[in-house]
Amino acid sequence: MGSRTRRSAVGVVDLAQELGVSTATVSRALNDSPAVRPELADRIRRHAETRGYVANRLARGLSASASRAFVGFVIPYVDTPAYSAVAAQCARLLSRDGTQMILTITENDPRRELQQLRELVASRIAGLIISPSTGILAESRRILGGLPVVELHRACGIAAPGVFSDDEQVMTDAVTHLAQLGHTDIAYLGTPRELSNGATRWRGIRRGMELAGLDPDAMAVRLVEPTRENGRAGAEELLARPGRPSALLVSGGAISVGAAEAVRRSGRRVPDELSVVVYGDPAWFALSEPPLTTVRVSYDELAVQAARLLSRALDGDVQLGAHLVRPELHVAGSTGKAPR
Questions:
Q1: Nearest to 155 by CA among 168, 174, 173, 136
Q2: CA distances, 152 to each of 162, 215, 250, 261, 298 (Å)
Q3: pLDDT-derived band of residue 263, with 50, 70 and 90 as boundaries?
Q4: Which of 134, 187, 254, 300 is an S-S bond match for 80, by CB 3.0 to 4.6 Å?
Q5: pTM attached to this predicted model
Q6: 320-336 per-position pLDDT tens digit
Q7: Which domains occur in the chain, in start order?
Q8: CA distance readout (Å), 28 to 11, 21, 41, 42
Q9: Rounded distance, CA 126 to CA 270, Å?
């Protein structure tokens, strides 16, 4: 999440010089011409892949410099507030400078993500905002290394600026809030620790449990990929455990929506029988009965900062780091004293 040095994308000339062949040979091999010996063509294509080269199929004959007219926005899901709200706001903000945003959805599939990155670079995007997949591939990282890139929500180990929700402290605050209400059997439904934000949230959970004198290793935990369906299934599993937890803490916007549905279906009275803390604060959380205690994240601020960082990166600013947006715990009617 540190600063980065902007690098130019690898071109046909670079590949030809590195391989000791002509640019025409490289071009023919990359276009599957039968005029190049199969073993040489295979060596050229493998080297091009290693170097992160993507052919510019849509701008042949134009200048090699990318136009600032288009940028990419690569996200794993679009049916969650954390991504849909930020995408819509980023598109509005970038359009003010005449920049159009191309949205792609990876469905958290690393190979799909790689294909989309190749297509975006082939379309001569100037840069992109990305929330990387859980298992991002090495070739995807190489492609990102040649572009102005801003990471959103998740970090994947590349030297790029990013905008992230600073979740560790607010997760500690949520556990402390439940513990002060007398809850000792708290179930946690979160995102995998392989995700950077999943790891951050879990650190906050553990610290909150330890500060409350509770054993985090004895906590009922379910970690799922952040989708609404997984949230519903994960919450149902936790609520069905022997002993039935007196509180459910959810970290993740999409899984919070599914978890809220599971709690309603369970028939357990909130907060008399079960206290609930959810994440993300979609508008309908406040309209539920009782209103849900939430970890509120400013999606507008995430979008503003992501668009700002990308604009600066496109202007050649390489002294960019991580920007953290601080969420807050908003206490409402879904948390109450632990039942005796």
A1: 136
A2: 6, 32, 20, 27, 13
A3: very high
A4: 254
A5: 0.77
A6: 889 999 999 999 999 99
A7: 167-297 (3.40.50.2300)
A8: 14, 11, 8, 12
A9: 49
